[in-house]
Amino acid sequence: MMQPRCERDVGAFEAALAAERARLVRLCARITGDADAAEDLAQETLVEAWRARGRLRDPGGLSPWLAAIARNVCLRWARGRGRELARRAEIAAAGLDGTPPTLDDLPDGDEDIAVDLERGELAELLDRALALLPAQTRAALIESYVYERPQGELAARLGLSEGALRVRLHRGRLALRHALATDLRAEAVALGIALPGSASDDTDYAGEPEWRETRIWCPFCGRHRLIARLMPAAGEYSYHCPGRCVPSGHPDVPGGIVVGMARDTTVAAGLTSAKSILSRLLADNDTRYRRGLAEGAAICLDCGQPGPVRLWTPADTADMGPLTYGINLACDHCRGGDNASLWHLMIDLPAGRRFWRRHPHMRALPIREITFQGRPALLAGFESVDGPAQLEVVSARETLDVLRIEGGIEGEATS
Predict the structure, then answer these.
(1) pLDDT along the chain (415 residues), means of 10
(2) In this structure, what are the phi and psi dihedrals at residue 222, rounded to the nearest 5 degrees?
(3) Is the distance from CB of 2 to CB of 8 less than 8 angstroms?
(4) Is-contact 190 273, C-beta < 8 A?
(5) Number of H helices and number of E strands within the chain?
(6) CB neighbours of residue 271 within 10 Å
(7) What sign does the CA torsion over 209, 211, 216, 218 have?
(8) What are the contacts of 121-126 at 24+ separation with CB within 8 A?
(9) Which residues 6+ apart lie within 8 Å of 164 measured at CB?
(10) Taking the mean position of all CA atoms in its chain, how far away is CA 131?
(11) How many C-beta neighbours within 10 Å does residue 362 have?
(12) Predicted local confidence at residue 87, as pLDDT
């Protein structure tokens, strides 16, 4: 018996809504800055869309229609939680260029999270800089550039002529730049904001840039802030812990390398902050290292030629402190290559990156040799410095293949 057309249409609409759910969650997280609330807000969006399905005239316009509903749901949620949160949500909902984000603006994977991470840091820094300005100057800047009030309307509200308002806005921009260049200079430079006399812009470097302290806690020891040396134009990025928690193996680097990349000028495209660049590097490393483990070879970052991937064990790491297992990517062509400890491989995993985002102040757990399902295995992972959260990863001792992940996001467990 043929299904009635109305029932087929309802089923198709339900399927279309279900297909948009993941992107709705990411859109809600982007607007609100609250990943925990995003799932509920996306569900509320789908419920409202279902109730209002009769208003959708063009099925081809489902994505922008859902995005508009999601923005309204998120703004309503934010307004119920305070004026400042609502203001930030309104900025995010409007988009950085004034154009509301759509579901199609959200790529799959971690790259959008890295961009969101950077935008959140910039918004927080801007809030702190604005707080240093006189109240009238701050109000004029926010009304003009955040709420986009017409200058005539804003001038009337402030009791100024339009010429006087333009002067106030100009002086406000100068004061904001001064605040970033003085009181908040270290934070601005760490986020890659180009300031007079700073080396945050690649073009200001004379030769090798200096190592600069970031706000990122070392994920291995949890005691020191990472130091970074970033050269986007050359495609070179390095991070290390000044506390020497991990031997670097490099005479010019006083601590352990967390990430080192060379000759890749596209990896940080669209990013400027040390944290967001590092997030993308970890994702790229995971792809490269896992493929190398599976295929037995990986591309050398220095010369581009394939080289063998070898596992190292306690017998090879007498001078590596707590790093008893890992991989070595040795290039026989240029004699270059790089290493990745088991700790490094754990933080490169999607679960490791998610755990670090949720618990930015964490430290590595000791690597333990265990037996898992009757085979030799390694237990490693991370724990929050500020709370009880843990992420544990079981890997095969002979191949370093991931066998099980437990903890992290609401007790997730995968085998």
Answers:
(1) 50 82 84 80 88 76 82 80 57 50 47 49 69 81 75 86 83 78 66 48 40 86 87 78 66 58 64 78 86 85 79 68 76 75 90 88 92 94 91 93 78 45
(2) 70, 15
(3) no
(4) yes
(5) 12, 13
(6) 21
(7) positive
(8) 121/191, 121/273, 121/275, 121/276, 122/191, 122/273, 123/88, 123/91, 125/180, 125/184, 125/187, 125/188, 125/191, 125/193
(9) 155
(10) 26
(11) 26
(12) 57
CATH number of 115-190: 1.10.10.10
Assigned token pair, 37: 């609330």
- Looking up tokens 């026989």 gives 332
pLDDT reported for residue 364 = 92
pTM over 0.85: no
CA-CA distance, 3 to 9, in Å (whole number)?
10
Q: Give the side-chain half-sphere CA count within 13 A for 321.
A: 13
Helix, strand, coil % in the chain, rounded to nearest 5: 50, 20, 35
Q: What local confidence, expressed as pLDDT, does residue 278 receive?
A: 86
> How many angstroms separate the CA atoms of 409 and 391, rounded?
9
Residue 93's identity, in one-letter code, is: A
380 three-class SS: strand
Residue 383 has a pLDDT of: 94
Residue type, 394: V
Q: Does residue 272 sit in helix, strand or coil?
A: coil
In DSSP notation, 315-362 reads: GG-TTSTT---EEEEE-TTTS-EEEEEHHHHHHHSHHHHHHHHH-SSE
Three state DSSP letters for 229-255: EEEHHHCEEEEEECCCCCCCCCCCCCC
CA separation for the pair 296, 278 (Å, rounded): 25
Q: Find all residues with CB under 8 Å of 82, minimum gap 6, and list them.
A: none
Residue whose token pair is 């820094």: 125
How confident is the model at residue 5, as a pLDDT? 44
